[in-house]
Amino acid sequence: MTAKVHSIGVSNFTVEHLTRLLDSVEVVPAVNQIQLHPYFQQRDVQAFHADHGILTQAWSPIGGITFYQEGSDQPSTLDDETIGRIAAAHSKTPAQVMLRWHLQEGRSAIPKSTKAHRIAENFDIFNFELSADELHDIDALDTGAGGGPEYSDDLLLSFGVSIPEA
Amino acid sequence: MAIAGTSRMVSSSWAMRGEIRGSGLVRGARRGWVAALARSNRWLVSASLSCSARTRANSTPSETPAQVAAFHAGVLVRRGTVGELGHVFPSEAGDAPLAAERDDAGLLRGEACAQRGEELLYLVPVVHDVDGSPGGVGTGSPCCSLPRRIRSSFGLPSPEASAAGPRDNVRGSHPWLAGAYRRSMNTNTITLNNGVTLPAIGLGVFQTPPDETRSAVEAALSVGYRHIDTAAAYFNEKEVGEGLANSDVDRAEIFVETKIWITDYGYDETAQFRQERRQARPRPARPASPAPAPVEQVREDAGVLPSAGEAAP
What is the ipTM for the molecules in this complex? Predict the structure, then answer.
């Protein structure tokens, strides 16, 4: 049988997780997929990635977790004034601006949608360019607070699954 | 090896032509000779770096400068400001943040065409083999992988005029480095640290119901996506596969990213898990939380599964 796993990565690893991992393995993960959007930029993790050649891959890249969660009291990235202003300047949507921001800052992003027109919209980002100032302005939106659970070891333990040493 | 310190230290460690002004902190990579110039407040680099260390075209990242042969490191930034994340931006409109000089072309994997505003977080001296191979920059044959626009703006000869083809010794011999380089802004491709290329934008199918996954995948492929991100815990891997199969796009072009569930952690378990996925066996118990636990992501080709012999542990 031919093996066809080409790359291995991790997701939701913190700097602590990555440090522990790199201390014990030879293969540096190709990717760490983390929650990353303008309101939650995880700069410590990004900096660690940069130091170690790990690609930052953003889940919830347009901040969906800020608006699709019921009861969330976080403001929505889609309604953000700064993002809206930049979007208007480029005749693009806020989602496209955010994805373009990821692209220009060297990240991979995996926007989720089930709607064909949204799927197309999310891919229509290769024909405009954000300026340095615009990137800066989006960088400045970081609140340091993400949506969803904390990714601690407790999350794993809560499933009652013992993880093999492998 | 680690390089750390100020630009002054760099200039003493690395033979310099030109100048570096400012107080750019040079951070060493964990392995290898890469130094990322970033995280200073403001700095100016207008130079090519000529490194006296020795390199070979096939040297490995773990080799220290002392072990690698003479190479030119790339021209870096002219005038820049560093953003909060350590991104380096040109400070003046129209300033090309990256510039190549004659005989130093082919920097950043040929992407010395960083445009205004492009993040330069991963500035590194880019190795060009000078002494190690015929046709290198040291023999008078310039590297020619720069875009024509950039070449002409710096008075470089056209690619056709060059005896040497585009050089790619960085990507070839230092694959883990390649992922740290900036890609050209209007492409969808990122090179990972193992040399594999990943389409930057992928379709996410987290929480996409199985019966909607197929059409979403097909819609994505039809508008140019070549990367789908799923997971065992999303319960739609099978439908992702069906969407791929329904598409006219060659499977070899498509990067599928998935995640192993924690019940399948382990070398053999993961291989077995992939086999089960393929056979559409019952799924593992649905996680209590929709949030993915730290898991491995794997890429697999359609219909071909990892084996214990070849899959990475």
Answer: 0.89
Measured CA to CA, the distance from residue B269 to residue B263 in angstroms comes to 8
Which residue matches tokens 């070549």? B226
Nearest to A50 among B36, B223, B257 (CB): B36
Answer for the pair B190, B183: CB distance below 8 angstroms, yes or no. Answer: yes
Residue A59 to residue A162: CA distance in whole angstroms: 26
User: How far apart, in whole angstroms, are the C-alpha atoms of residue A12 and residue A46?
Assistant: 12
B130-159 pLDDT per residue, tens: 222 222 222 222 222 333 333 333 333 443
Q: Which of residues 29-58 of B touch A (CB under 8 A)?
A: 29-30, 36, 38
* For B301, nearest residue in chain A (alpha carbons): A4
**Chain A residue numbers touching B200 (CB-CB < 8 A):** 102-103, 107-109
Instruction: Check CB contact under 8 Å for B190 and A55.
Output: yes
CA dihedral A58, A135, B149, B16 (to 10 degrees): -90
Separation of alpha carbons B190 and B28, rounded Å: 22
Q: What is the pLDDT of residues B265-308, one digit of tens each?
A: 777 777 666 555 554 433 444 333 333 333 333 333 222 223 22
The C-alpha atoms of residue B21 and residue B26 are separated, in whole angstroms, by 13
Whole-angstrom Cα distance, residue A162 to residue A124? 43
Tell me the C-alpha distance between A114 and A148, whole Å: 21
- pTM given for the model: 0.56
Closest residue on chain A to B252 (Cα) = A4
